[in-house]
Design goal:
By secondary structure, the chain is of the alpha+beta class. About 45% of the residues lie in helices and about 25% in strands.
Length: about 180
């Protein structure tokens, strides 16, 4: 049997992030996953023959918390739709004191790069910050010990029309980040 905990956590984290950014409206939410991402999150080699069954087993595993998931094929992956009772479950878990809450609020307020990095450091003493030399983003930031989360954050600092700077981010699991080969 597959270990479904990492995929479930990823789904919960993505729902929470969306709710923080967009607000909670009590609706269902759909998340698209490539086959490679699912392989990474489930920790096993999935074939076209067994991936669908494993996802249906995952839906059964999460049903007590997330309700009846809907799983549909998309190009090179699957769309997992979490019903409103699942998004309500995530909303109830949000204590509004998490790292992602602080990060999203700081980005929303157009805080400086130093302020954003300060938020990372306020949640951990082991933060890695690497300036990058690529066209995609400017800094790779993550918690070295995986606490409070094990995502890799790609920060971009853009100049606004008024000359101010604005920080944006994308976050990835390590394996997906490595697949991009930045």
């Amino acid at each position: 049997m597959s270990d479904f905990r990492r995929l479930e956590k990823h789904i919960l984290d993505n729902i929470l992030e969306a709710q923080i950014k967009l607000g909670y409206e009590g609706r269902s939410m759909s998340l698209n996953y490539t086959k490679n991402s699912l392989i990474h999150l489930l920790g096993e080699n999935l074939s076209d023959d067994n991936i669908r069954q494993i996802l249906f087993d995952f839906a059964e595993y999460t049903a007590p918390r997330l309700g009846k998931l809907s799983i549909t094929d998309i190009s090179n992956g699957f769309c997992i739709t979490i019903p409103s009772e699942g998004t309500a479950y995530v909303h109830a878990l949000n204590d509004k004191k998490s790292f992602i809450c602080a990060l999203v609020e700081a980005v929303r307020q157009h805080r400086s790069l130093e302020d954003i990095l300060g938020i990372f450091r306020s949640f951990s003493d082991s933060v890695s910050v690497t300036e990058t030399d690529n066209d995609e983003f400017h800094y790779l930031v993550y918690f070295e010990n995986g606490v409070p989360d094990d995502y890799l954050y790609c920060l971009t600092v853009d100049e606004e029309i008024d000359g101010s700077l604005h920080v944006t981010y994308h976050r990835f699991i390590k394996e997906d980040y490595e697949d991009f080969n930045f």
